[in-house]
Amino acid sequence: QVQLVESGGGLVQPGGSLRLSCAASGFSFSSTAMSWYRQAPGKERELVATTYIDDGGTYYADFVKGRFTISRDNVKNTVLLQMKSLKLEDTAVYYCRAWVGDLHWGKGTLVTVSA
């Protein structure tokens, strides 16, 4: 079955960096667009970034442009989110998402940006 497992979250100071990883299995990863979403306390889940297939490029939400980079490894079936210049407002649970006949989510990894 489809499995998405996020890792790499943690506590970081403002201005710091983190790299999130999502390990995918159970579907044709190279044929699937992959996205990172986040949900801050008391807020709705929002799209952060997407990586498309066949060098279709990437999409970034305005609030992360220039700070976050999404990438994929179609050999390791992994999608990464490199985050730099982190801000307090980046604090959230970050989720990996894939559409494989249906919407699939990982359980998320918590990123806390705090001084």
Structure characterization notes:
By secondary structure, the chain is mainly beta. It is built from no helices and eleven strands. The strands form two sheets. Strands 2, 4, 5, 6, 9, 10 and 11 form a seven-stranded mixed beta sheet that branches. Strands 1-3-8-7 form a four-stranded antiparallel beta sheet, with no helix packed on it. It is globular and about 40 Å long.
Summarize the SSE layout with pairings.
Elements (H helix, E strand, L loop, with lengths): L2 E5 L2 E3 L5 E8 L8 E6 L6 E6 L6 E3 L7 E6 L4 E6 L8 E8 L3 E3 L3 E5 L2
Parallel strand pairs: 2-11
Antiparallel strand pairs: 1-3, 3-8, 4-5, 4-9, 5-6, 7-8, 9-10, 9-11
**How would you classify the helix and strand content by structural class?**
mainly beta
Tally of DSSP β-strands: 11
Please outline the major beta sheet: 7 strands, mixed
How big a fraction of the residues is strand?
over 45%
Shape: globular
Stretches where pLDDT is under 50 for at least 5 consecutive residues are none
How many helices? 0
Question: How far do the termini sit from each other?
Answer: 40 Å
The H-and-E topology, N to C, reads as: EEEEEEEEEEE
- Would you tell me the overall average pLDDT? 96
Gyration radius, rounded: 13 Å
How helical, in percent, are the residues? under 10%
